[in-house]
Amino acid sequence: MVARRPLIAGNWKMFGRLAGLGELAALWDLTRQAGAALDMLLCPPAAYVNAAAVAARGTQLLIGAQDCSAVSEDSARTGEISAAMLADVGAAYVIVGHSERRSLHGESDALVRKKAEAALAAGLTPIICVGETLTQRQAGRVEEVVAAQVRESVPAAGIVVAYEPVWAIGGDRTPSVEEIAAAHALIRDTLAASFGEAGRAARILYGGSVGPKNAAEIFTAAGVDGALVGRASLKAADFAAIVLAHPAVR
To answer: Is 105 in the active site?
Structure first.
């Protein structure tokens, strides 16, 4: 079995300014020894992707985007940004299907799948987000909901999946280590059923209020290949603490 290289990804969401890209140099200073053990990725707002890629030169920090159009070809789509455009300005990854996109913009599994396909066609690695709401968890529907999202949203192997229980995002609650492990096992089995060993080899990240205080515990959950970090990725010291908490570094 091929070992899965850990990935710690930061999603800046709609936070940050151009001046904040100075955090990338500080982050690399704090984490350069971790570069041999895992991948580090930052996904700033689209307006700053190119500047972030420039700021990351000379480091092993990867740059990604937070969303892309489902349309691959150049077309009359005012306000949309294609995966090819993101690749052109230095992105290597793109997040698709984040719960905020699904809930605030009504994105369906079918649309997320098309965005992932567009990302793959442009040479980007999509990070496909899946996860249940609190209501769904309380109704005992975690397996049903998450497995269906994986089957319907993931078009091929060669992707990253982020398990982000919607009820844990941006708050002070996280699932237990056992609950995280169970969700990751479900996702891996579902990917394997669709894509065989290539699906089983996909990296699966945990996302949902990951911070310096709980990262080490989260990383002990079986099947967790890294994290999708929200606001804690904006500050070099906080993100570095999460990176350095991964057992691959220690």
So the answer is: no
